[in-house]
Amino acid sequence: MLKNFIVVFLWSMVPLVELRGAIPIAHYIHTNNPEFNLLLAYIVIAIGNMVPMPFIFFFARKVLEWGKDKPVIGKFFTFCLEKGEKGGMKLQEKAGRGLYVALLLFVGIPVPGTGAWTGTLAASILDMDFKKSVLAVIGGIALAGTIIGLASFLGFGAIAGIKG
């Protein structure tokens, strides 16, 4: 059982996958093993999605800027920097004074290219306040978790009903 929680915890920390991928995995595990506690899994997934935030906020920008002109990793690091800058600028343009609410929505609306990693990187690039950014990203994680959880529940519930 612990193995399943470790699996979803680790998946929730992977960039681009994050909780958007970990929650459906948890639902899949639950479908095959009803004893797997989904509520506990959601908590583990949310924590796993938050663990990288301080590292991204304080170190990712420095590491990406250091590596952007290196031979093997340069293109990927440049892509990550541009993605963070583009997301940050888009947030800033649209949000104005409501920047932290925009950050929450940016992280919370589950579409490709958004999430805790990109939102935290954008906050770092924009030199936003760390504490306010963390609160906005946590709120976004909660929103995304709710949306993905409902979609997964409805999707896996429908599949289970069809399989009968």
In a few lines, what is going on in this structure?
The protein has 8 helices and no strands. The chain is mainly α and 164 residues long. The protein is globular and about 45 Å long.
Please tag this protein with its features.
8 helices
Explain what you see.
The protein has 164 residues and is mainly α. The chain has one domain (2-163). It has helices at 2-12, 18-32, 38-50, 53-67, 74-95, 99-108, 116-125, 130-163.
Show the helix and strand layout.
Layout: H1 2-12, H2 18-32, H3 38-50, H4 53-67, H5 74-95, H6 99-108, H7 116-125, H8 130-163
Radius of gyration: 17 Å
Estimate the mean pLDDT confidence.
88
N-to-C series of helices and strands: HHHHHHHH
Per DSSP E runs of 2 or more residues, the count of β-strands stands at 0
Low-confidence stretches: none
The portion of residues assigned to helices is over 70%
The percentage of residues in β strands lies in under 5%
